[in-house]
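Ticket #4471: structure output looks truncated?

Reporter: J.K.
Steps to reproduce: submitted the chain below (273 residues) through the standard prediction queue, then opened the result file.
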Amino acid sequence: MSQYKYSATVNEHRAKAVGLLSPISAKQGVEICNFIRGKDTQKAKDILNEVIDMKKPIPFKRFTEGAGHKHGIGPGKYPVKACKEILKLIKLVEANAQHNGLDTSSLVIVHICAKKGPKSWHYGRQSRIAMKRTHVEIVVEEKEIKKKEVKKETKKPAKEEESKPIKKQEEKKEPEKEIEEREIKEKQKEEVKEKNGEKIKEEVEIKKQEKPETNGVKEKSKEELKEKEHKKVEAKVKEIREKIQQEEKLQKEKVPTALELAKKKENKKIDKK
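Returned output as attached by the reporter:
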């Protein structure tokens, strides 16, 4: 058997695959190939999966016999079996591209076509009925990624280059002035620190002299407060005692009620008897 020849050229940036004697209708294969051609492999797989799930139909433009009208498409069908076979072929060509070292995420279907294969008869009671056989070939190509052009730095004119050494000399002179200014500032800071230190010492001595007097005043004020609190407590105790004594007197001088008088009379009568 001679080697299969593709109808599209294949180079280093392309990968190929072929499905021989696929058990699908040639007419359906032609319509599916026309719809997928020029698309990314990922997008083509998504479309075929939607057709298999009966969510999106394939538009039929050439072989429209028996194709019902579909919204926004016109005549269309759901060739599930043919889509499954072509989906296998796309996965196969992606594997071939990966083996060749191509980037599978940037593959485009450059060429895909379906050809009618040889007919053979069914066996048994289905004799004299020819089987459907189709050859489907596919070629994918890697997308060219455009690299961003890096802007080259333009050379500066000669005048600027001549002016550079003069600037450098000026920059060298400036540090000497800065050093002198720093020394003067440091001396001023040291003088200010010495003056502040003397003032702080004087303030500390004054505070030390004042501390004993203040402590004596504080101690006296504490003793006075304690005496006042003690007197308040004693006054409260006296008030409570007086209240208790008054209550006891009232209980003794209590006037007898009518019931108590009646009970006393009854007791007297009983004693007489």
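Triage note (M.O.): checked the attachment and the full token line is present. The beta strands are 14-22, 58-59, 68-70, 74-77, 107-116, 134-142.
Status: closed, working as intended.
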